[in-house]
Every structure is written in structure tokens, then in C-alpha cells.
Amino acid sequence: MAVEGEGASQPPVTTTAAATTTERVIARLSRFPNMEHICDNYGDLKLEFSSSVLSSLEKYLPPEMLTANREAKAKFMSDILRKYISRSECFIAKWRNYYWQRINSEYKPLYRGWCNLDPELFLLPAFRNAISENTEESFRRIISEPFPGVLVFQMFQPDFFEKLILEVENVRKWAHEKKIPIRRPNKTSKHGVVLDDYFGLDFMSKKLMEDFIFPICKVFFPEECGAMFDSHHGFFIENGEDRDAPLCYHVDDSEITLNVCVRKRFEGGEISFVGTRCQKHKETNIKPEEVFRYFHTQGQAILHRGRHSHGARATTPSCYRANMILFCRNSLFREMETYKKEFPEWCDECAHEKKEKESQSLAAKRKGMIRIVGGGKAQ
Question: Can you give the pTM of this predicted structure?
Fold first, then answer.
């Protein structure tokens, strides 16, 4: 999605066939949403993209498109989305939609409270109080930052973990009986479960992201979260001798990642963080000072940038751990990333380059001053 800059004029939108043959119109979105605009519903139209996606995007349409008919707006937005999502990906999305509809119509959760997550039942009092106060001071009381950009805190009641583990086992049993494949978090996983696919658990992930993770991110990661995260991806993973092997160093498909240790037996399998990188610097080498290792204990939540490269050490034969992961995403941040040239606020390499440029500039100024002073003395 291209975004117009401040003060930039919007190219005229032409819908006639004649105009499209003589001039290729570049579809662009406005940088800021029109919050007063009432969006249309596209559910009855046969489109590549879901109605909810188009309705969410509509507020960012340029002023001249907001008054167009639904078909014209749907085409305009679809043209933009198609630059980022191929037709094969659209086909996969439609298949997943059918898959979700079948699961949600047939799967019966063990615990029906996932849909209306009760904070008093599942969240610790200290965490609830901090969120209620919603200040940096209140968050600092419950959060430690053992390394820049890595936040650690206690969040859930023990009962939450027990219910979640039982629900995941119920999902596996039901899928086996119904002969329905379980969608895995990644290509290498054989035991993980995508929580968003199952009735109730998707609502739980959304509520956690919007009501409890976003307020913290607004203070500690304001650039990445923006006005609000607009999508999420929640899943459950297990690492151990008879489970999945932990992933090596990688970055997440998220702006912010919540990683909660649901269960752990014996020592081992610590998480190593090895530097934050923007798209431009994702292949640059890691510096020793960027490496940080953390022993994730049961019940702890870790919050970090998705671009903070990390990986878990291989577990020992006797070590087992289960984690709930929640990817929080902001599509506008991703779009704006294509327009910015550097990210010194969070990319370690951008910050290093900025310091180098400042040092070189200061050295050049000093050298120039010395020449001026020296020339004056010579006279």
C-alpha cells in the first residue's frame, strides 16, 4: 500500500475504461484515517479479500474515493492489496476460511470462558492494577528490562495455564477423531497448535492483545504499535525429546511478540537475543554486545520486538517446555517502513550507522576549526 506524504497531492482516480488505457492510475491510501467515516459492508460481494479487511482499510481511502460506490471502493482497495497478496495466497486464505468455518461449527471447547476472558480469573492482581493505572510508573513496578527491548513480567494466574494445556489436548483429540488437520505455527512444527483457529481462543488472543498488551507497548514500543495493532497470530508450541525441536535464530512475523512460558520441567533451553534489525540490515553480522541470553521460567511473560532476532537453545533430553506465543501486528507500521531510510530508535545497525555519521561529522568540524585557527595564527 502506498501512502501519501504530508502535503502531497492525490492523483485523480479515474474509473472509465478509456482513461485506464491512456494513463496508469497509481492507487494510494491516505496517511491518516478518516475516523468519522462510516465504512460499508462488503460481505455480499464476491471478492478476493474478506469483507472485514476491506472495511478496516476503507477509512484510509483518499477523500475522493470515500464517496464512490461500493464496487469502485472494493476494486480500488483490492488493487492495492493485490500488490502484497498474490492470487495463490488469496486461494489459501479462502481455503482457510472454509477450514475455520468447519472448526468453529463443530469444535466444542472444554472451557467456554475463552470468548469473554475474565481478567479477575486469569490475570494476576498486580498486573491488572498496572493496566488499570495505565502509566509508565505503574508498568515499571511489575516489569523488569534485563536487556534493552526485552521486557519480563508475571501476567497470568496458574489456573490459566492449566486450562490452556487441557484445551490444547482437547483440540488434538478432537482433530484426530474428526480426521481434521491441525494448522501448525511454522513449517517445521509437528506438535504446535494455532490457537486462532478454534472458537474462543481467537477471541482470547484478540482481547489479550488489545486490552492488556497494547497499553504496555504504547509506552515501551510506541512506533511499532501505533494507534492500535490490527491483527494477531496466537499459537501454542512444545519443545522436548518427543516434541518439536526449538527454532534457531530467527525474527518473528510481528511488530511485537508476547512469549509466555506455560510449563517447564528441568533446566535448559534458554532464549538468546542477538540484535534488532530493520529490513535493510537484516543480513548484517551480529556484534558481541548485542547478544543476551535469558532463562525463561514457568509463568513468565517476555515482550520484545518481532525484529529482535532470537532463538532457543536445544533442550536437554530431560527438559520439556510449553509456550504460548502471540504475534501482534501493525500493517501501517509495515507500510511506513518502506518509506523510511533508517530506524535508529530500534534497529541496532541504524543506530550504529547514525553514531558513526555523527562522529565523522564532528571530526570534520574539528578539523575545519583547527585549519581556521591555524590559518589565523599564521597570519
Answer: 0.71
